[in-house]
Design goal:
The protein is mainly beta and 147 residues long. It has one domain. The chain has strands at 5-12, 15-25, 28-30, 42-48, 54-56, 59-69, 76-89, 93-103, 108-111, 115-117, 123-128.
């Protein structure tokens, strides 16, 4: 059974300061910070990335996909990265919302509308929407956002 826990972003003078983790932690219940009462809290998805890091709503992840497609002499490989912020949907589970994609085989890139399911073992947390908003903001020079 997955742990029910959250992280709550704390701000000082309108600027992100740190996360406070609350919920079922270490066998006991940790409360949210008073005054915020869970405002903007981000739920733990129950998934760990490929490095063993917990994935929360609001994390920015890279999902790496390698697929072979086609038949016989028309067979080709697709090696793509999808980057974006994590959300939890009741009907789909943990997903990347409106992911930026990069085709590593021929250097094409773009932005999808919609959601892409994530798998922890193929994903890597590279930041979050509070500390690294530039990772999911559109760029003006047509190059994808990547670290």
């Amino acid at each position: 059974m997955r742990e029910i826990k959250y992280r709550q972003p704390l701000f000082h003078n309108g600027h992100f300061r740190k996360f406070h983790y609350w919920g079922d932690i270490d066998g006991g219940f940790q409360s949210p910070v008073a005054g915020n009462l869970g405002r903007n809290s981000q739920e733990f998805t129950g998934l760990l990335d490929k490095n063993g890091k917990e994935i929360y709503e609001g994390d920015v992840v890279i999902l790496r996909c390698h697929v072979s497609a086609g038949y016989y002499e028309d067979r080709y490989d697709i090696d793509m990265d999808f980057t974006g912020g994590v959300v939890i949907l009741p009907s789909m589970g943990a997903c990347i919302k409106n992911p930026i994609w990069v085709d590593n085989m021929d250097d094409r890139h773009g932005k999808n509308q919609g959601y892409k399911n994530i798998r922890g073992y193929r994903s890597e947390v590279i930041g979050n929407i509070y500390e690294n908003p530039e990772l999911i903001s559109p760029k003006t020079d047509s190059t994808p956002n990547r670290i």
